[in-house]
Amino acid sequence: MAALRIVNGTVLTMAPDQEPIAEGVVCTQGGVISYAxxxxxxxxxxxxxxxxxxxxxxxxxxxxxxxxLAMTLFRGYADDMILQEWLEDWIWPAEMRLRPxxxxxxxxxxxxxMLRFGVTCFNDMYHMPEQAVQAAIDSGIRACPSGVLLGxxxxxxxxxxxxxxxxxxxxxxxxxxIHPMLAxxxxxxxxxxxxxxxxxxxxxxxxxxxxxxxxxxxxxxxxYDEHGESPVAHLNALGLLDVPMxxxxxxxxxxEDIALLAEKQVGIAHCPTSNMKLASGFAPVPxxxxxxxxxxxxxxxxxxxxxxxxxxxxxxxxxxxxAHSGDPTTLPAHTAxxxxxxxxxxxxxxxxxxxxxxxxxxxxxxxxxxxxxHLQPPRDPISHLIYAAHGSDVRTTIVExxxxxxxxxxxxxxxxxxxxxxxxxxxxxxxxxx
Length: 434
Ligand SMILES: [Zn+2]
Description:
This protein has 434 residues and is an alpha/beta fold. It folds into two domains: 4-60 and 359-410, Urease, subunit C, domain 1; 62-347, Metal-dependent hydrolases (TIM Barrel, Alpha-Beta Barrel). The protein has helices at 83-95, 100-116, 129-139, 156-173, 192-205, 217-227, 231-237, 255-263, 272-277, 285-290, 310-325, 333-347, 381-387, 415-430; strands at residues 4-11, 21-29, 32-38, 49-52, 56-60, 62-67, 119-124, 142-144, 148-149, 183-184, 209-213, 245-249, 267-270, 294-297, 365-369, 394-399, 402-406, 409-410. Strands 1, 2, 3, 4, 5, 15, 16, 17 and 18 form a nine-stranded mixed β-sheet that branches. It has a four-stranded parallel β-sheet with strand order 11-12-13-14. It is globular, with a radius of gyration of 21 Å.
C-alpha cells in the first residue's frame, strides 16, 4: 500500500476544539495517519503518492453507526406504513426468501453507495453476516458486522451459538477493517435468557452489543407492562449496560434513562430520517448530549430512509432538533459533524482508531469538493458541510490508507456489475414466486 500525502486542502481533523487548518497536509503510512496539520510543519516529502486536495475539505471518513446494509434491496419496496405492519407484513416475509448471494450483492450495493458518499465505516445488523463481511473486504470499506438475533425464532439458541462462534472466528482472523459485534434485535424480540447469554458471549469474545432500543412508544409501554420498568432500566437490571453497547434510536427515554445511558457511556446511534419516516418520534438528542452521552448518527436500513447519505443525516439532525425545541441554537453544525465522525466512532467503541485525523489513527479520510455553485462563496467549511453539501460532493474516499474512490470512480469493485446483480437479487426477494 502506497504512503499518501494529501496537500493543498483545508483540513478538519475533527479532534475536539481543533480549528480548520486552511493550508493543511495529511500523510499516511501503512494505513495509519503519520501527520495531520499545517503545511509548514509537515515532514519533508518522501516516496509518497501525492493527492492534490485543492478546492477540497479533508476530513475523517463518516461513520454510519447503525444500518442493515443488504436492505438496499428493499429500497422503495414498502413506504409510508407503520413500523409493525411494515416489518411483519412486508419485510420479514421477503427476508424469508433471502439467499446468501442476495445479502452479498445487496451489501455490496450499499458499500458502493456509502463509499461514494464518504462513509468509510458502517455498523451492520443483518442476516448471514458473513456476506456483509465479504462485501466489506471486497469493497475496501470498514465494517462492524453482526447477525441479527430474533429470540422468537424456534432455533434462536442455535443461531446465538453460531453468532458467538462467528464473532470468535472473526476476532481470530483479526482483519484490520472488520470489527464484529453481537446483535440481539431488541428487547421485545429477545427474551431475557437470550439477552443474558448475549451479554456473556460479548464479554467472552470481547465485542460490543448492537441492539435497537426505545425506538417506539409502544416498545416502552410493553416493557413497563411486562417488566415494570423501561427498556433501558431493564437492560441495566440484566447487567447488559456494563457491556460495551451500541443502542440504535433511543427515541423514547425518561430522565432516568438519559442519566443511565450517559453514566454507562452506552453508544447511541441517532437515526433522524428513520425516526421521521416511521413517525417514531423525536429522540432527546440535545438532552443526551447535555448529560454527556455518546451520540453518533446512523442511516438505519435503506427500507426506512431510503438512502445511506450521512451528510443528509447530519443535516437533518441539525435541523430536526431546532424545529422540535423551538431553539435555533440547538445542535449547531460542528456538533452535527462531530456526531457523524468522532462521536459515531466512539459510540462503536472505535474511538481510539478512527473518527478523527490524528497521528496513529487508521487512515480513513475523505475529500469533499467545495468548488460547486451550491457551496459558494467559501466560508466556514463546517457550516457548508452540514447545511449545504451532499454525499455526492465527496471526491475521494480513503479507507485504511487505500484510495477506494477517486474522482467519482470506485476503484475496488465493478460498480455496473454490482448494480446489475443487486437488481436481479432484489427482484428475487420481493416476488413471492421469484
Ligand atoms: Zn435498525
